[in-house]
Amino acid sequence: MSSSTSDVGANALPLGKYLASTDKKTRDKAVKSLAAFLSSARQPLPKLEMAKLWKGIFYCYWMSDKPLVQQALASELAELLLTIPSTDNSLAFLSGFWEAIVREWNGIDRLRMDKYYMLVRKFINASLRLMGRDEWNREAILAYNEILARKGGPLCPEDSRGTTRPTVSFFDPLFNALRPPMQEGPLTKRPRLDSDEGLEALKGNSCLENPEEGKIENGKLRQQLCQKMFDIASGSDLKKPLDETKKLLTRNNYYNYYFCITCV
């Protein structure tokens, strides 16, 4: 047995060099080993180890070079979230994913960008199914929101790194990923959304910030959401006209802002 295969044993954390190997069989075996390890792990990996692991996973996906292979691998990697028994451990793994994506995003060339969009879509879908598995537990949802909106997260409104964050690419995959979980049968006895009409159902059952406030009427939600965006865009001076407000925004953040307004 070769050293590359013997070192990637069952229930062992595969080294990054095996995940990012140029040999597809070695990469496949490393992913299987990773799934076995994550499904049996009782504690999340330390932050440094998680970063190293995701560095290897990122380049494992980087090395996939055929559409069907890429699609299968994206699905397999996203499903790892649901093979982890503990929601806390799943969220730690998900946090590692977004940290890796944000960190590496600016280095993705245009030929590989589409396949990373697909990976993001798969993880958004798996994240929502993870929330459903946990019966939409409030603490889990708040932890997920924190992963996305904290400084350095893909949806952080105050992060100045601009183009190095996949912010715009998040929204379209989010809306697309929402549809399948909403169309599936209920996972628990918790009441489902009022309708199954995709984005309209999402907006009609949304709150602004605090889930305990309950859902807000769509017109009021739009007004309050737009006001918050203007507040962030214009800083402390909320009386500036729109043209001056635009000048305060980076080009990238302005397009993010405009995209959000048109989607609400």
TrEMBL record:
<keyword id="KW-0539">Nucleus</keyword>
<dbReference type="InterPro" id="IPR010301">
    <property type="entry name" value="RRP1"/>
</dbReference>
<protein>
    <submittedName>
        <fullName>Ribosomal rna processing</fullName>
    </submittedName>
</protein>
<dbReference type="GO" id="GO:0030688">
    <property type="term" value="C:preribosome, small subunit precursor"/>
</dbReference>
<dbReference type="GO" id="GO:0005634">
    <property type="term" value="C:nucleus"/>
</dbReference>
<dbReference type="Pfam" id="PF05997">
    <property type="entry name" value="Nop52"/>
</dbReference>
<dbReference type="GO" id="GO:0006364">
    <property type="term" value="P:rRNA processing"/>
</dbReference>
<comment type="similarity">
    <text>Belongs to the RRP1 family.</text>
</comment>
<keyword id="KW-0698">rRNA processing</keyword>
